[in-house]
């Protein structure tokens, strides 16, 4: 596994905490260069001064211009994008319009905007490769398998979660009426309920998810595309 990503460059959103941070750390350990963007004002200590990590703090992915500037700032080819930036606030019984908009703009618009800018770059990369000569292949044929985009979703995209109706909708198209519990009490209740439903009896660590993302970005997953891969400890 050592250096399997040597010479490759990846973009990671939400790279300063949680799953995104675990992804950044795994990728650099495996030899990649990583450009990480996050709305947080500063990068965590473990990323600062690392020669293979380039951090963009104060970067709001729900702003399309920010996504474009971030992608434009990455030199050379981009081999993959991991969209980890996301929010899942408790929404009470009915989310306000402002909260609805905030969740949708980050989880949906942000994911779409960053992917669109990266795909634009990947298409340019392909044209350059073809201009250098791609034998008998047409541009369309050559375009297969030129880069990876991984969007981190949620089990909430498959089933409802009490107090997270808009969040669930932002992770796919399902919605559900919210429960009433709020605040710390709701958080604890939520975590205990979630744990009880997971056959492996524990919540995921960020590295559990990062390991799967590393696999999907690697050559070992070169014939996997357009799939949803649940990493959920066996939850139905
Ligand atoms: N942790 C879980 O158990 C879990 C489960 C299912 C799905 N998810 C989803 O996975 C994704 C990552 O989750 P996590 O647990 O790592 O969350 P996290 O809160 O630990 O990290 C998210 C990161 O995204 C950044 N961020 C938030 N809004 C942003 C914005 N507008 N622009 C740029 N960066 C922004 C945050 O600053 C943070 O660094 C989220 O979409 C989350 O909903 C997480």
Automatic annotation (TrEMBL):
<dbReference type="GO" id="GO:0048038">
    <property type="term" value="F:quinone binding"/>
</dbReference>
<dbReference type="InterPro" id="IPR002347">
    <property type="entry name" value="SDR_fam"/>
</dbReference>
<keyword id="KW-0560">Oxidoreductase</keyword>
<dbReference type="GO" id="GO:0016616">
    <property type="term" value="F:oxidoreductase activity, acting on the CH-OH group of donors, NAD or NADP as acceptor"/>
</dbReference>
<dbReference type="Pfam" id="PF13561">
    <property type="entry name" value="adh_short_C2"/>
</dbReference>
<dbReference type="GO" id="GO:0006633">
    <property type="term" value="P:fatty acid biosynthetic process"/>
</dbReference>
<dbReference type="Pfam" id="PF00106">
    <property type="entry name" value="adh_short"/>
</dbReference>
<protein>
    <submittedName>
        <fullName>Uncharacterized protein</fullName>
    </submittedName>
</protein>
<dbReference type="InterPro" id="IPR036291">
    <property type="entry name" value="NAD(P)-bd_dom_sf"/>
</dbReference>
<comment type="similarity">
    <text>Belongs to the short-chain dehydrogenases/reductases (SDR) family.</text>
</comment>
């Amino acid at each position: 596994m050592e250096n399997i990503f040597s010479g490759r460059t990846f973009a990671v959103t939400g790279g300063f905490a949680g799953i995104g941070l675990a992804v950044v750390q795994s990728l650099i350990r495996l030899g990649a260069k990583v450009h990480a963007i996050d709305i947080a004002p500063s990068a965590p200590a473990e990323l600062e001064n690392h020669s293979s990590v380039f951090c963009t703090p104060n970067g709001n992915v729900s702003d399309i211009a920010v996504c474009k500037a971030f992608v434009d700032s990455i030199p050379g080819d981009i081999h993959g994008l991991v969209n980890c930036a996301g929010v899942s606030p408790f929404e009470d019984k009915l989310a306000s319009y402002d909260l609805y908009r905030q969740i949708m703009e980050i989880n949906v618009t942000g994911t779409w905007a960053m992917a669109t800018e990266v795909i634009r770059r990947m298409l340019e990369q392909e044209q350059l490769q073809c201009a250098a000569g791609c034998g008998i292949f047409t541009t369309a044929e050559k375009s297969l398998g030129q880069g990876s985009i991984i969007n981190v979703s949620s089990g909430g995209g498959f089933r409802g979660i009490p107090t997270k109706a808009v969040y669930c909708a932002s992770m796919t198209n399902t919605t559900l009426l919210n429960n009433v519990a709020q605040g710390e009490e709701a958080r604890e209740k939520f975590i205990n309920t979630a744990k009880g439903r997971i056959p492996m009896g524990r919540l995921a660590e960020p590295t559990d998810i990062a390991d799967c993302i590393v696999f999907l970005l690697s050559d070992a997953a070169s014939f996997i595309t357009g799939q949803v891969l649940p990493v959920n400890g066996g939850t139905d």
